[in-house]
Amino acid sequence: MSVLVVGASGAVGGLVVAGLLERGEQVRATSRDPRRLALPPHVGTFTADLDDPASFGPALEGVERVFLYADLHDPEALVAQLARAGVRHVVLLSSSAVTEPGAEEDYNGSRFLRVERAIDAAGLDRTFLRPGGFAGNAARWSWGVRADSAVPLPYPEAVQAPVHEADIADVAVLALTGDTLVGAAPVLTGPERLTLREQVATIGDVIGRPVTVVEQTEAESAALLGRHVPQVWVRQIITGWREAVGTTPTISDAYPRLTGRPARTFRTWVEDHAALFR
Ligand SMILES: NC(=O)c1ccc[n+]([C@@H]2O[C@H](COP(=O)([O-])OP(=O)(O)OC[C@H]3O[C@@H](n4cnc5c(N)ncnc54)[C@H](OP(=O)(O)O)[C@@H]3O)[C@@H](O)[C@H]2O)c1
Asked: Which residue of 108, 156, 179, 180 is most buried, as measured by CB atoms within 10 A?
């Protein structure tokens, strides 16, 4: 039986494919445009769109477990397609937003909850990976760092515990290669709390030149973010920063508990992606 990785072009999905191949698993991979996938020839690649469940038909042949992104409009239809095809276990890249108070009403929390609930309602075995904010969100600062050695921010004292995408992928691979995480919903965070200002300073430290924070208003931030991020996310991002000022985000012990290794630091993430900022 094979494992199907949906979204093999993604930051997490790509590492899930690599981790499964390292373990000698039979892997299939999808993208809406598989020409973007550079995978060994023995990995079957397929065109499939989460918003067109029927497009998964060929990719699902002989597949027992699936790694899934939650970016879809009709979770019930997609999950029904997986169940019909004989998939037994779904590992969903969800979000810690589902654990926040008011998740049902929140745009972000509710879209992940809908997918989680569709999977549960179909009676499939499941593992819900619930990461907090990704370290990779700092990639949005790369243009400012490269051009001006500066990052404009409205709330530099917002506190986060950014998680490395490789940690999420490691736990996904664990879940996809056995039954120990069936029914689990680990919240994944980084190992440390850092303000945005400290994250910016870490980038400067790694690339070997100082990077400064330029304070801006919410309106200025919204205008700047809107050039790079869909409007629906601009408010979410700014509200998230505002509400994170002076907070003490919980550090999850799930990654070290499940893998026996310390979670990767934000500094490691910057080192792994330093080319973005140079
Ligand atoms: N950023 C955060 O702080 C954060 C926190 C918690 C959860 N998350 C969630 O984590 C996910 C992002 O992970 P990432 O960084 O690995 O993403 P990414 O690098 O942006 O990749 C997204 C992947 O999803 C696939 N995808 C998107 N829509 C699809 C569709 N309609 N049909 C098929 N595949 C589709 C894409 O595949 P193709 O384009 O190749 O088809 C791509 O491989 C999102 O769901 C996000 O909401 C993010």
From this structure: 156
